[in-house]
Amino acid sequence: METKRTLRFAILAVAALGLIALACTSDDGGGSGGDTLKAVKDRGDVKCGVNDAVPGFGFLQPDGSFAGFDVDFCRAIAAAVFGDATKVEYVPLTAAARFEALTAGEIDVLIRNTTWTASRDADLAAAFTVTTFYDGQGMMVRANSGIQTLQDMENATICVLQGTTTELNLEDRFSSGGIPYTPLTFADNETLEQAFSQERCDGWTSDKSQLASRRSAYPAEAGGPDSLTILAETFSKEPLGPATLDGDSPWFDVVNWVVIGMMTADELGVTSANVATMAANPPSPDVARLLGLAVGDTPATDFGLGLPADFMQKVLAQVGNYDEVYERNITPIGLQRAGTLNASWRAGGLIYAPPMR
C-alpha cells in the first residue's frame, strides 16, 4: 500500500513539474511557447535591430530618422501588425552585438544586413526568413593602388569588421589562395573607414552591397567615390534577410509572410500607387487573395497569421512592394536590380515568392 501511495505521489509530482514547465515556457516570450506577436501588440511598436551607418540599407538621415532597404522591411512589419508603418523603435546594433540583442529579447526582429549561416541558425538560435538580398563578399581598394585582383594583395593589410562572416571568409579565401596578409579588425564601419582613409590598410573587405554603399558616400575630402574601386571577384555567398528568435513560429510567420507578400506584389504588379485601385477591382484571384479580399463566393483567405485580412493593403500603401523598396534604396547607391540575383525569378533572378493562398 505504501509503495502504491509513494508511486502515486511521484506521478503527481512529475505531472505538476510538467505543468509548471509548460506555464513558464508559455509566459517567457521565448522558446517554443514564445509569443512575441502578442508582446509587440501589447507594447504598441516593433523593436527592430538595424544598422545606422550603411547608406542604402540602414542609416541615419540628417534629420535623425532612419532610412534604407532593411529599415523599410521594419516599417512593413509595423504596417502589417498595426496598420501604421511608423510604429517602429529602431535599435542600432554593431555586428558583434546583434545576436546577443536578439537572444536577450532587446529586439523583436533583426534586419541588419545579416548573413544566414548554419551556425547562426543553430548555435545562435536565430530563425532566418526568406532572403531579401543575395550578396557576396568583395574587396575595395584605392583606384590608384595598382591592385587589379586579389592575387595582387600579397602582404597587404586589410580592414575588416570583427565578429562577422566577412572576417572568416577573408581568412578562407586568402589562406586557400596562398596569399599572405594582415587583418586589421574594427567594431564598426566608422572607425574602419577612418583607418582606410588614413591608408592604414590597403584593402577594405565586406559584402559588395556594403562596399558600394560606403563608396557612394565616401567623403570628397578623402577623394570621393571615384577614388575607390571594387574588385571584380566575389568570394562568398551572403544571403541577407530578417531573423527572429528560434522557437516562436507565430512571430516568425508574420515577418516571413510580410516579406513574401511584398515579393508577391512585385510579381503581380501591385504597387503603392495602384493598390487602392486593385483592391476596388482585383484583376485576378491572386491579387484578391494578396489584398485580403473575397474571390467570387469564397471569403477572404485567413492565412492564420493573427493579422487583419487586408494587412498587405496597409503594407503596400505605406511602404510599397519589393521592387519599390529596392529602387528607392539600393539603386541610388549604384546597384541596379536588373541582371542580378536580386531580380525577379521571371527576369532570371532568385526573388521567388511562395503562393499566398
Describe the structure.
With 357 residues, the chain is of the alpha/beta class. It folds into 2 domains: 29-134 and 238-272 and 319-351, 3-Layer(aba) Sandwich (D-Maltodextrin-Binding Protein, domain 2), CATH 3.40.190.10; 137-236, 3-Layer(aba) Sandwich (D-Maltodextrin-Binding Protein, domain 2). The chain has 13 helices and 15 strands. The strands form 5 sheets. It has a 5-stranded mixed beta sheet, sandwiched between helices. It has a 3-stranded parallel beta sheet with strand order 5-1-6. The model is unreliable at 1-33 (pLDDT under 50).
Helix share, percent: 25-40%
- The average pLDDT is 90
CATH superfamily of the largest domain: Periplasmic binding protein-like II
Number of domains: 2
Strand order in the largest sheet: 11-10-12-9-13
- The level-1 CATH class of the largest domain: Alpha Beta
Shape designation = elongated
Query: Major β-sheet, in short?
Result: 5 strands, mixed
Overall SS class: alpha/beta
CATH architecture type of the largest domain: 3-Layer(aba) Sandwich
Number of strands: 15
- Sheet-strand content, in percent, reads 15-25%
Order of helices and strands: HHEEEEHEHEHEEEEHEHEHEEEHHHHH
Low-pLDDT segments, ≥5 res: 1-33
Cα end-to-end separation: 60 Å
* Named CATH topology of the largest domain: D-Maltodextrin-Binding Protein, domain 2
Evaluate the radius of gyration. 24 Å
Helix count from the secondary structure assignment? 13
